UniProtKB/TrEMBL annotation, chains A, B, C, D:
Keywords: Amino-acid biosynthesis, Aromatic amino acid biosynthesis, FAD, Flavoprotein, FMN, Lyase, NADP. Belongs to the chorismate synthase family. This is Chorismate synthase. PROSITE patterns: CHORISMATE_SYNTHASE_1, CHORISMATE_SYNTHASE_2, CHORISMATE_SYNTHASE_3. The gene is aroC. It comes from Qipengyuania spongiae.
């Protein structure tokens, strides 16, 4: 039933609350003999880490990961890899307000309705802090996928999209928005600054491309590669939509315009286009795997909003203090991590049934 | 690893190829004591059945379901429910062409790349024929959910959307398109007829709403209700995108405009809006659960398209004979079924951890 | 949660009741490209089939298996293999007595306590008839294991054990008891005949050896090869005990007497003994995998026994008609099948994590 | 595929090696609202802890457990419970010998054969040290089972069995052997002391009884209560056999002698005997659940034994230093824990399908 476990062959389980002593993940099923050290994971955590510039929350967490098991003399042993990050920035603040009144758009009410109680400090288990462990687990998954390169980037913030014709992969790391379009990045500086100062928040669209995925990964009918990606991505905090390839755009095309013609190629067919996003019938085709996710604007903002208390009384809720003006930005490394985790899982799944190294 | 099994507590496994002797499903974990007969399942299959009007494929399949186990004296026993439909319309036709040349957009090449061989007759396992078993299993799931009513309908075909202000639920059954807007239905008659005659195909958007879902279903973090819906829906043949609530539209809203204010209500809070689509933090809020899926246009059309053969030679592929001009139409009951299956599963999952009947 | 599914990578799901229209299994995860026809399965079913001699029940079931999916042109396709056997010997008899009074030692009371109702005809789902599908699935599993040969045989009936020094594998097929000791087989003829005529029943011990299992199958800590074997074997109807290697005998040995010394060998170490039964730390060592299971005497016998009715009234229950005087005999092919299923599953599991073909 | 996860609804995942920085477990699916503190777990760990008397290893580990998540203000929240124990007694000793030569009966060779490398320090992942986390997880499981009381005890050491007629439950805690027979406990003092001084080791049989289990837990056919118990118990280090109820003894009884007659009772039937060990057809009957496990003598002893090195050279292996003369003793709390974990899991599973609190 796997409440807190994701994956089939390469599985990871996360635990921890925003303001508990630590958060962690256990990665199970990792092949043995891979070189792994904390330094292989830390850069990915650093990319996601808050407090790095004025466009993300000012919460400070060094997010230093420790490997507690599954690695011996620098190599994975095939036994579970336990990863742990201590929560160091647990400000002792007054949570009585948040404990009592439900923040609309946050999981406060849903958790209480389900469990009858909740750890309300900083959102507890529902905090996006948990995504740090997805990023850490994703770094392990990448080791399983030396043949694949994965890149996620933001294509739209607050409705302002990049110009596809200006796409430049080398720009992605040059700005705080993972933006592949230098012009758009400049516009977003203003846009996000304005939202931050206004205490508002913005949504975003993140695209992720995996190159080097061979044809044949994914398993019909209920372990389809695209279905597993959809589950993995929709489960990221604040995500409300997932597309593969052409996505919703495909609903507006005619069949003959959405086809991806094939021509004889050196290693399998050469495709003339990639409307399918590299997946047909739930199985990879050898083309780049392309997906897109929609991040809602975070529900933390200064404008007061009507709500109710635990006792059902009317209340006004207003976010105070630090928050991300656009969670999609920090969500970008998380999207990359989930792509890596799903692909690595399917690589091993394919091997189980069909062999090969 | 569950290649062909979906669900956690209420699970179903499907089997069968388009042109084999039969297709089937095994539904496991169903509560005992529910009234169930073939007549409870057949209407849902009839709704999905092809050949009913000129807007869907003319393939004729009576799709008569048989219950082979798990029911005794008209009631479920708690043991697995085996459902079987014989394939009766297996035209003996010449498949040598399809056997050899890969149809772009179909799973032909991907299956061969994965398995090294495939049952090419009518698409084999990758045929949308399998969705009949999802619909049958979904009919069982509905019995587990007497408190929930589920309705799916088409909101857009070939880029032509309904007018939301004309939405009329009673219209859905009055036209062959599951269209809730009588005007749009008329336009679609022309649109779909034209595409059919031209041997082209159209995409569609299907929306599905479940009312009566109580707050508290869904389980963070890797059994989130929205993530499971995304997996279930993205796995339907031809689906390329899934949205929950506001979906990609949320990426264009500000936080304060995307919030769903709560007010004191008789049974939990009354929500002033439902941007969230009834799910926050992966858990239902008591509001209607709303999702939307994008169906691509089927890859069967008359226009010849470049492709390759199994041996890597260049080829031209052109669909002959019967096909659906818009698979989204017949996909609509499948969307409903997957919604029912996911919700029923989560009802039982919630009960496992948190009790209650 | 997998109520009716067994296995991790190679999974099978069974369905069906003793007196329903049919029983069946879905085998999922089977590698593609294996030669498979009904004739590959039928001999194993025939070996288990009742009514073949006077030492097993006289119920007549041809048990002819049909393959409904997953095989194309004589080879497995990698998609689920649906196997079905029609129930042909459903005598229309009066079940009112069994419907009302619980048969001690049978699952009647337990099923009612759990589900509130049950299909009481012939034991319904709890009937050993289901084991036919394990045998059928096991025949598929054997195809995955060409390097392994598996043999189960009866070592003890009603407390009368074979003489290990008279063990002769060629004798196993020469008598109706799967007995490797010709002398013991003669004694058992008398023993079982007597029990049958007296309307009594006898227990048995079955041993199973798999040769050719390479070192390295099995996965610590909760997918151990011996733990999975224990689950698979303990779940067979009437089994009450499972041993690996020396089993309970090991509890009476000193460490130095239970050790299996290793010497340099051509392919890995040569072991001087096999107290471990080929499994250490949950992983195969390359030695033969050896297990032993205890079958209780069936709870069907002529002696009346005290019981209660569904309404809690006192009752006397007495088995009438056909039954097996020693279910361990017909259980022997089932033990073999479960060994094959567990080993094939672990072969694929090992491949997922550690590669290799 | 769950290499290191056990359970279906209440699941736990363990991680950690004998000489790594820590070991841990994540317990997932625990109902919310249960009172839980470290003090509820520690006593069970203390019972298993080594170094408490001269009959167990002198290795000193305080085994102080920390709860890192899933508990808020003293109550479980329904989110995963992370448990961690630091490894404090990691003597810096020379492992070069054990690194090179395989200890017969230990998992050294099997791990190398599977993974190609291993953490050889103290057995690494294959060390019984991992069982501390089963005990910790089991303490959580007990909270889910207030209606059930579980007791495990040793019935036999080195072939010397207790006298069943002298069984006295109050004696179990009065001696270092969990022995319910005061006379036997005295004999074992001598027996175990002798073995310890001789550097030998002894096997043991442990019995476990769970009282208060209601009828109806367990799910046919592949989530049978006895099959899950068999898996859970066979997976404990050094266990080679598992019996339910009469176990192998049932193979020597006639059907009429193995039956458990039922009589009208106040709450369901009163059973006249319990040969079945409280489980029929894989489902609990309301009687005490009884199982028995065989522990082999540990493979650590002073007598040199033939072996091979990693390079395939002949070697002599001889255990030096601290070890348990009878691992069955310290295994007793582990058996109890696994019983609790399986029962708690099945309580929740039953609730999922059949409702009830």
């Amino acid at each position: 039933m796997s409440w807190n476990t994701f994956g089939r062959a390469l599985r990871f389980t996360t635990w921890g609350e925003s303001h508990g002593p630590a958060i962690g993940a256990v990665v199970d099923g990792c092949p043995p003999g891979l070189d792994l050290a904390e330094a292989d994971i830390q850069p990915f955590l650093d990319a996601r880490r808050p407090g790095q510039n004025r466009f993300t929350t000012q919460r400070q967490e060094p997010d230093a990961v420790r490997i507690l098991s599954g690695v011996f003399e620098g190599r994975t042993t095939g036994t579970p890899i336990s990863l742990l990050i201590e929560n160091t920035d647990q400000r002792s603040k007054d949570y009585s307000e948040i404990a009592n009144a439900y923040r609309p758009g946050h999981a406060d009410y849903a958790y209480d309705a389900k469990y009858g109680l909740r750890d309300y400090r900083g959102g507890g288990r529902s905090s996006a802090r948990e995504t740090a462990m997805r990023v850490a687990a994703g770094a392990v998954a990448r080791l399983v996928l030396p043949e694949v390169s994965i890149s996620a980037y933001v294509t739209e913030i607050g409705g302002d999209a990049i110009d596809p014709s200006s796409f430049d992969a080398t720009e992605i790391g040059n700005n705080p928005f993972w933006c592949p379009d230098a012009e758009a990045a400049k516009r977003w500086e203003e846009l996000v600054s304005e939202a931050r100062l206004a205490g508002s928040s913005l949504g975003a669209v993140v695209e992720c491309v995996a190159e080097g995925v061979p044809a044949g990964w994914g398993a019909p009918l209920y372990a389809k590669l695209d279905a597993d990606l959809a589950a993995g991505l929709m489960g990221i905090n604040a995500v409300k939509g997932v597309e593969i390839g052409e996505g919703f755009g495909a609903a507006r095309l005619r069949g003959e315009d959405n086809a991806d013609p094939m021509r004889p190629g050196a290693n399998g067919p050469d495709f003339a286009s990639n409307h399918a996003g590299g997946i047909v019938g739930g199985i990879s085709t050898g083309q780049p795997v392309v997906c897109r996710v929609a991040f809602k604007p975070t529900s933390s903002f200064f404008t007061p909003v009507e709500s109710v208390t635990r006792d059902g009384e009317a209340a006004q809720v207003r976010t105070k203090g630090r928050h991300d003006p656009c969670v999609g930005i920090r969500g970008t490394p998380v999207v990359e991590a989930m792509m890596a985790l799903v692909l690595a899982d399917h690589k091993l799944l394919h091997r189980a049934q069909c062999g090969g190294d």
